[in-house]
Specification:
The structure holds two protein chains of two kinds.
Chain A lengths: L1 H9 L3 E12 L4 E12 L3 E5 L6 H9 L6 E6 L2 E2 L7 E4 L11 H5 L1 H6 L4 H13 L15 H14 L4 E5 L7 H18 L2 E6 L2 H7 L2 E6 L4 E7 L14 H13 L4
Parallel strand pairs in A: 3-8, 3-9, 6-7, 7-8
Antiparallel strand pairs in A: 1-2, 1-4, 4-5, 9-10
Chain B lengths: L1 H42 L11 H14 L3 H32 L1 H16 L6 H8 L3 H25 L3 H9 L4 H39 L4 H10 L3 H29 L5 H15 L6
The chains are: A alpha/beta, B mainly alpha.
């Protein structure tokens, strides 16, 4: 109980922040991201949405520490990002599972990289596979799973690290519409259950709004944060919420920002 | 619903099996017809019996070299022991150097022209030189076998190691994996199926290499046996040796296929199913501390 109260009071703390963040490629000739300023609060779900070339994936990689900013500063939990770190976990558009490992062994990979997995780690991995609905496929190999199931394994692996900041780069972008909607609903349930801060990159406007507390709209050439929109729709959100007036007002707002209306 | 599925599945299996049996029967029929044609042709003088011995004589030679004289076993052992040893040594060298060159960009740039020259030269042409340098005997034979079966594992390991999936590499980096972890847990396992394909080519090459070495040295082994029989115009025994090699080649192919299903298990349906069951039995479900 004491823990819960503490985490309640902690809601609202800034866990990821960026100050004048910029990134150029090809010796400064390509501006991928320009002058990004942001504060992301603990436990919130933030979507980055925009057309290709708007720098949304670049921003995600900057936060993860996989690449370094050309200018400005990014801080996570108050310390500057200087490379990949244990409090951040990342998921990609491709499941990037290892074909020679079972689902369970794939989920255990991050634990293995940090040391020898214990019985407790293994039990946690099995629990996570259950959480993503794959308890019957713990000993299956990726080639025996559908594309959607492979992404579920990747999702369990994302959570196995125990990191409290999750970065997802169009994680369900390669899946069909029905599977994607289903997995998005699951994702919302799971991240609220584990209480993680989530940054989600997508080029799908409805998906961005449906999932998020805040939508960051980004425009291209140069990549830039154009507007941050608060989504004050009640949770849990049913799929049908996407036909509501409030939801469509938000869609309109995003589209206007992108200059499509 | 379930029973219906099983019934239709077994019906499909049944018809597939009988189709397969009919195919096998057809092949055997054609084979026997060819053998009979050969036998008749040889008897009535269409074929020169000196160079194309009758199948019945070849059969008798099989009996002679395997049972009555039983002289082939010594030579078979001499050839196959060298083939296996040379293959293993050549492979270890090929895989090791392939991995080393694959990981080291400087070494790769430096060695590239030599690799191209080596690839363009038929390796077997160097065989007489090796014999001149190392003398007659086991060491020069082994060197020739190693030389001919070094290349496929080398090239395949090199390309397998270099073609690492960028997305997976990024995943490993995001998990803060060390260089050696990336090597052991990603790059090498990922290259195994390609390396295995190289090993298959290498083993076939090793057998050819051994035969050439034996043709030159004429001391022992199936290659020298074929040479001796041919010189004595004992063609039916020479044919029996050649068909022995056919069977060996087939066994090598099947053996390598089996090995591939074990080592690169995730590439094959049966391998995945076998390993999946094995892991389930070994690890099971939840366990207490």
């Amino acid at each position: 109980m004491g823990e819960q109260v503490q985490s309640m009071t902690a809601v609202g703390d800034v866990v990821v922040s960026g100050l004048n963040v910029g990134k150029t490629f090809a010796a400064g000739t390509v501006v991928a991201l320009e002058d990004a300023n942001f504060d992301i609060k603990r436990g919130s779900f933030v979507s980055l949405v925009g057309p290709s070339g708007c720098g949304k994936s670049t921003l995600l990689r900057l936060i993860s520490g996989l690449i370094e900013p050309t200018s400005g500063k990014i801080s996570v939990h108050g310390t500057p990002v200087e490379g990949p770190r244990p409090d951040i976990s990342m998921m990609f558009q491709k499941a990037t599972l290892l074909d020679w490992r079972t689902s369970l062994e794939n989920v255990l990979l991050p634990t293995e990289i940090n040391g020898t997995p214990s019985k407790a780690d293994k039990n946690r991995a099995l629990d996570l596979l259950k959480l993503v609905g794959l308890e019957d496929f713990a000993f299956s190999f990726p080639a025996q799973l559908s594309g959607g199931m492979q992404q579920r394994v990747a999702l369990a692996r994302l959570l196995q690290t125990g990191a409290d900041i999750l970065l997802l780069d169009e994680p369900f972008g390669a899946l069909d519409e029905f599977t994607r909607e289903h997995l998005n609903t699951e994702l919302m349930r799971i991240v609220s259950e584990v209480g993680a801060t989530t940054i989600f990159v997508t080029h799908n406007i409805s998906e961005a709004i449906f999932l998020a507390d805040q939508v960051v709209v980004m425009t291209s050439r140069p990549g830039r944060m154009a507007k941050i929109i608060d989504v004050e729709l009640e949770r849990p959100r049913p799929l049908s919420i996407q036909t509501s007036v409030e939801f469509n007002k938000l869609v309109l707002d995003v589209r206007e920002t992108l200059g499509e209306m | 619903m379930a029973t219906q599925d099983t019934i239709s599945a077994s019906a499909i299996n049944g018809s597939a099996l009988s189709l397969r049996n009919r195919r096998i029967a057809k092949h055997i029929g054609i084979f026997l017809a060819l053998i009979i044609l050969w036998e008749i042709g040889s008897r009535i003088g269409w074929l020169d019996p000196l160079f194309y011995p009758r199948p019945s004589n070849i059969l008798r030679s099989f009996w002679l070299i395997y049972v009555a004289n039983a002289n082939v076993w010594f030579h078979l052992y001499a050839t196959m022991s060298l083939v296996l040893l040379g293959w293993i040594l050549g492979s270890v060298l090929g895989i090791g150097l392939g991995a080393l060159v694959g990981f080291n960009a400087v070494l790769r740039r430096f060695l590239k022209p030599y690799v191209i020259v080596l690839e363009a030269t038929p390796r077997i042409a160097v065989a007489p030189l090796l014999i001149a340098a190392l003398g007659f005997g086991v060491s020069s034979k082994l060197a020739i076998i190693m030389l001919v079966c070094f290349f496929a594992p080398f090239i395949n390991t090199l390309s397998g190691v270099m073609n690492v999936d960028e997305d997976r590499l990024e995943l490993f980096r995001s998990m803060r994996a060390s260089k050696s972890q990336i090597l052991r847990k990603l790059v090498l396992p990922d290259a195994i199926p390609v390396i295995m394909a190289g090993e298959r080519l290498a083993l076939t090459a090793a057998l050819s290499g051994a035969l050439v070495a034996e043709f030159i040295q004429r001391d022992k082994g199936i290659g020298s046996l074929i040479l001796v029989y041919t010189r004595n115009l004992n063609m039916s025994s020479a044919f029996a040796c050649i068909f022995t090699l056919t069977i060996l080649g087939f066994l090598i192919f099947k053996g390598m296929e089996k090995l591939d299903h074990y080592i690169a298990y995730w590439k094959h349906e049966d391998g995945r199913e076998r390993m999946s069951l094995k892991r389930r039995r070994k690890i099971g479900g939840h366990s207490d501390v």
